[in-house]
Amino acid sequence: MQTIAVANRASSKKKKNFTSARELIQPEVHDLVITRMAAPGNSDQPIPERVTLVRPNPSNPSSALLFIDQTPVPQHAWSYDAHDKILRWQGRFGGGQLHFVHNAPGGGYGVIGSAEHAVSVSAGAKAQFTCAVALDCGVSYKTSGKTIIGLDWDISSSQWTSAKWNKDRLLLTYTVTPQGPILPPKFAFKFTDKETGASPWEPKSPPAEASLNLRTTGALAWDLMFKSSLPPSPPDTSSKPITGPQSVYPYWLQAVEDAAESTINGALVVEDFAPQGTLVGMQGTRANPMVSGYYQTSSSSAPFAIFDGRLHVDTKPMENAYLKGNTLHWQGLNQEHQNRLGLSESGSLEFSKNGSIASSQDTKVAARRLSTRSTLDQVAKHKDLHPEAHAAALLQTEALADSSLTIYGLLAMTPFGQNNQGAWSDVVQGAVQEDLSTIMNSFVSSDIWSLLFPNEAQPTLSGELAEVANSPVPGVTDPTSWYQSLGTAV
User: Residue 246 half-sphere exposure, CB side, CA atoms within 13 Å?
Assistant: First the structure.
């Protein structure tokens, strides 16, 4: 009888079970605002304004999309390590590497540009809420003695629920940029009055106070606070009638977001500093950041883009078109865009939670998100409508045509990889072991193989693997006999 070296069979069968945890993997999106760090000697080379990574189905890597300033990056030119949250790409702006922070609300750090002109950057996480506002909804000051310490409101009170709400008037946008493990994050706010058309207010100097903190008691929620040290932009002075407060640009804002950061409610102090200011209630819905990318209503229609909660054509946002939650609303679309995009003058599209598909019950229009390859093809096909997007894609193609090694390409070359359960292994070593197992098992005598594995075909060698197995090496002139000798009589 013989004992046969049958290599790595149990471990290779075990690998087939790694897909059992796919349903536990959640969609992931990083919508980031890129800023140059104020570090001595930091390069002044150009950097992108935005980086957007969308992973609607992490168990299917081919569905993932990366956009650098709205330009889709081919999948072979970028990689993402979901475990360590490291994104790398080549081509645009000389390539880059961003390391995302693990804790909410997100953001990160990194470098962009060539090894000779690398730019240290911060990446801020952006959120956008479309909010209704109301006067006389029960908002009051919270005091300690004679000192005002906060704002108070009750969304379950009759005053709140019966108030006259000015729908979708305020567009609240904020960006949170991490500043390291010790310093608090940096905040940037933007307030837009969608009813009056007043110029948006973006406080240029840092606000006196700003924070976003996860509650440690009670139901999970996020507490958002903004308090300006300077008066906001003056309200609109046109003769257009205004419903609700004269201004929605706050001296003070306190709000609560749900645990998923998808809804918000809170209070504003407008028109003056507290306690002379007017108290206003607010409640709104976040633009789903998963709804990002290029979409198409039919194979003959030109694509349109959705970024930053807005409908875009050729990298430019369309007026009166915005995303609220999972729904894109638009009105006043001109005739050319109606004809080219396959959309009506006014309407809405309801998107799936992961942003991949959309439909409209009113107009019977449907849309789907395009893959990277399809996006590049369709932008090229309709380059008369998308000249700037097409030019950016050509610049990317030119940059990727350079076959010289880059620091980001080298960093992406790793022998390690993850299975669907998140476990790490040396995939190069695993492939070598699997090939060695195939070679060794192919040389086991057929009668012994049939005895041990009667219902399984014995491996056979072909191509490069057969050439390797039958190649003599110093000390072994007859590889076949050598492999066969690994069976030992007992």
Answer: 13
**Residue 263 contacts by C-beta under 8 Å, 6 or more apart in sequence?**
257, 283, 284, 285, 286
Task: Of 295, 449, 446, give the one whose Cα is nearest residue 367.
Answer: 295
Quick check: 55 pLDDT over 80? Answer: yes
Q: How confident is the model at residue 285 (pLDDT cuts 50, 70, 90)?
A: very high
- Quote the crossing angle between the two packed helices 372-381 and 387-400, to the nearest 10°: 130
Mean local confidence (pLDDT), 269-282: 95
Query: Cβ(69)–Cβ(50) under 8 Å?
Result: yes
Phi and psi of 94, rounded to 5°? 80, 10
Name the pLDDT band for 173 (thresholds 50, 70, 90).
very high
Residue type, position 180, single letter = G
How would you write the chain as a 3-class SS string?
CEECCCCCHHHHHHHCCHHHHHHHCCCEEEEEEEEECCCCCCCCCCCCCEEEEEECCCCCHHHCEEEECCEECCHHHEEEECCCCEEEECCHHHCEEEEECCCCCCCEEEEECCCCCCEEEEEEEEEEEEEEEECCCCCEEEEECCEEEEEECCCCCHHHHCCCCEEEEEEEEEEEECCCCCCCCEEEEEEEECCCCCCCECCCCCCCEEEEEECCCCCCEEEEEEECCCCCCCCCCCCCCCCCCCCCCEEEEEEEEECCCCEEEEEEEECCCCCCCEEEEEEEEECCCCCCEEEECCCCCCCEEEECCEEEECCEEEEEEEEECCEEEECCCCHHHHHHHCCCCCEEEEECCCCCEEECCCCCCEEEECCHHHHHHHHHHCCCCCHHHHHHHHHHHHHHCCCCCCHHHHHHCCCEEECCCCCEEEHHHHHHHHHHHHHHHHCCCHHHHHHHCCCCCCCCCCHHHHHHHCCCECCECCHHHHHHCCCEEC
Q: Are the beta carbons of 400 and 77 closer than 8 angstroms?
A: yes
Cα distances from 285 to residues 58, 131, 256, 265, 435, in angstroms, run: 25, 7, 12, 9, 54
Average pLDDT, the chain: 87
Contact 326, 349 (CB under 8 A): no
Report the C-alpha gap between 112 and 87 in whole angstroms: 11
Using CA atoms, how far residue 312 sits from 139, 318, 407, in Å, is 37, 6, 33
